[in-house]
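Appendix B. One record, verbatim.
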Amino acid sequence: MSREAGGSKDSQKHRRLHWSEFSRFAVRIGHTLEAVDEAEDWMLEFFVWFLVAGAMKPGTLANYRASLSVIQGTAGQDMSRSTRSRDLQLERRDRHGRHRARTPQEFSELLAAAQAFDNDVVHVIRLMRWLGLRMREALMCGKSLQTWRDLILQGERRLPVERGAKNGRPRRTEVLADHVDETLDAITAALEFCRNRDFELVTGCNDDLKSAKSRLKSRFEQLPMRRELASHSLRFTYAVDFANAALDRGVPPVEVLTQLSDRLGHGPSRVKMILEVYCWQIRHRFPEKIQLPSDFVPRKPTKNSPVSSVGHPEVRFDGDRSATRRRRPAPGRRFQNKQGGKRPSHRAN
């Protein structure tokens, strides 16, 4: 069921682990689950309060609740109300203040330190900063560099990001209009560096992605790149530069946030998070009261639906938040056996 729900391998694994913990909790309160769809709303709610009593942090608790909701939804049960923060009056995670954008001076000093330390890390840092890539995306982008270089030389500013994209969702980043030369130079240098290395920017001891990622994290720690100036600060720097440039061109604030959310790979519906997290340093440049909320929902694409400039169906505002937050009924089981009946229930073990 976790595989059927999709997502990255890590997400699928975490769903299985979280549901296993819930299953063991059900046994402790005297309800052995013979099948996934035997879970009831009150069991999930009790499990959530059990985790709260154990002083679980709001962010981790949100991941648990999402895992349970996805698994039960795949099983044909809509238990979203049993795990909804608002209904349970749970504390929401605080995403503020974790990272910040680097100043030009700080970025120059970081590059100088990286060049004296490890040349392959320099290319990863430059690509993350100028294209707003996640660490995994920059680590795996070697085979895309030639395509990116050709597109920029042809005058194209939107570049496809496919390898390493979060949850396997391809996206298109954008070259910053005021930094085309720096971006092209970073891509060209990285391409020349990895061309004879099987297009790998960083190679680990075991010659696989996991060891390469471990080595890169170790190098970031040694530089140092920690806390508010950890590797994700390079993505924040890209976001602030993109937003400032768009606002200077007179782009409406909501459209700026929509475009930035799309370029960062969050889709057009995460504009509130983009404003509060990535753009907190330039919050003063946006209206104090701006209509951005969770009801900023993209329409489903249809044959006649117009497409916005960011490549997504037009988005709409709806004043009724409760209606937009209501989930669709969970789909029933789609698989059938050879005799035409439903697939046998999944056992909890």
